[in-house]
Amino acid sequence: MTGVDEQLYEDETDVMEALFGEGEQGQGGGVLVHLRQDREQGARSWLLLSAQDIDVARQEWNRAGVALLRCGALFAAVRIDADLVHAAAGTSDDGEVNEYLAAVLAGPVFRSQHRGRYYALVPASAAARREWRERRYAPHAECLGLGSYVGVPRPDLDRPDRHISYWCVPMSGPGDLCDAGAVSQLLGYGRHVMAMAGVLGARK
What we know:
Number of strands: 7
Helix content: 40-55%
Largest sheet: 5 strands, antiparallel
Number of domains: 1
Distance between the termini: 73 Å
Shape: globular
Strand content: 15-25%
Radius of gyration: 21 Å
Strand order of the largest sheet: 5-2-4-3-7
């Protein structure tokens, strides 16, 4: 190694130590794990603020992976039939649907495989939007606001092959929510696709 190479190596080492701490250079996987754990812990603490009893919600998450949380204060939940989401995404493949939702909604979405529905978390104020007051997307979608409860999966559950309820698009941190307008656009497009396919009228 030349003198120049040695200096470059030392400079890179100093940068890595400043970012990750001494002895963690080259352990990018470990750093990513810590970042994910921090993200999940932040999301967990924030979501628990909507629990009627925080201790009970923690126990539900630990025991069953799903906790019952209140809507209408910190967030509302848009409940969407899987058929509508798949129509909008143009596929029913889990991975491709998840990528579509992440790109279009840019916010947290989870799925209940037991009921075949997706849930997009949006600001609590979304429940007062005109489209929800007029029940424009019923019966294929509904916005759950004040007075409603929703079973929310633990923030670290993101595998459809392992969990009945899981995050398609995990929360990136406390207060991370989908844009309500983007959710409505997805629903409108999905309904259009279903109508063109002759599916929408058959399900009314």
